[in-house]
Amino acid sequence: MIRLLISDDSAFMRIAIRKMVESQSDIEVVGEAKTGQMCVEMARELRPDVITMDVEMPVMDGLEATRQIMAATPCPIIMLSSLTERNSVTTIRALELGAVDFIAKKSSFVQLDIVQIGADLVEKLRYWAKKKSRLSTIRSFGASPLSAANNAPAAPRQLRTVPSQQSAGLVVLGISTGGPATLPHVLKSMGRLGCPMVVAQHMPPMFTSGFAAHLRSETGLDVVESTEQMELKPGMIVIAKGGTDVVIREPFPGKLMLYQKTDVSATIHPNADVLFRSAAATSCHVVAVVMTGMGSDGMLGAKDLVARKNAHVLVQEPESCIVDGMPTSTLNAGLATAVLSPKEIGTRLSRLCVSRTIPTFKTSV
Predict the structure, then answer these.
(1) Fold of the domain spanning 2-140
(2) 329 catalytic, yes or no?
(3) Which end of the chain is less congested by CB atoms within 10 angstroms, N or C?
(4) What is the mean pLDDT of residues 288-298?
(5) Is 133 a catalytic residue?
(6) What is the CATH number of domain 157-352?
(7) What confidence tens digit (pLDDT) does each residue in 192-218 have?
């Protein structure tokens, strides 16, 4: 039985969440908290398997409640956040503090899609309840999923070898659950690249703008949300706009342009497979990166990059992932050229994507 603690200052939302899960025989609501402080106390007393946490609450907000719970009584926390830029930034910060996932909700009760949110919530409750023991073990040692790989040796892996190539002209990166907590480590160790990077982070609309702003503030790098017909320039880190897909085109050699186009065949957006496949059609050397996330997005696109360009494919160590589905699927397909921690991925990218030198010519006087 999955023991659920609901934390929300809205009586409507507490009732709504209870209604979403009460028909499930394997989920039991063990408590309801009206404030963040109540949630911290109830988490200590009830020891739930999963907590749903509202972002904005009186007395103590969801951010501080998450920090205190993860420090004292670690438990998977799923944030419930309205689709506003302010709440998206707070949610991203909560994910960095230890919340494992989030569900976006409409800000108006009239607009609330109970059926869709309920289906997503039940799926995530079951998934994260199974992961509670691993989460508790990691937290109890004062570590985080990013350093968990240091505690257990990885099994031998079959990696591809790629001949020495000239500096890459483009980096494409696919990431999902765990991305907001993990991607900053890559960027900080990477620094400014000599080529553009495009990131497909699975997120709904409104969240990617705040995510890009947060990364820009945290790293000091040129991180922006994608726009239609954006020219990609060296040093840019483009976060694909939430809820849609992006493709890269090369109207003439050396000029890379980004276009927003939702692929109806893709099951999740922004989609890494769509991004990777478009990168395979460019003339430049491409480095693909597949990181933490559920499912297998990025694997098929990486397969296309390998077949057409023999590209480098960097994969995050499954042991260091919050969710290892995406990198594991790429590893199992035999596509990886390296398996690295987030910080090591950043360091490797800085070596593969050095700035191109522009020749200078002396003129005689």
Answers:
(1) Rossmann fold (3.40.50)
(2) no
(3) C
(4) 96
(5) no
(6) 3.40.50.180
(7) 999 999 999 999 888 899 999 999 999
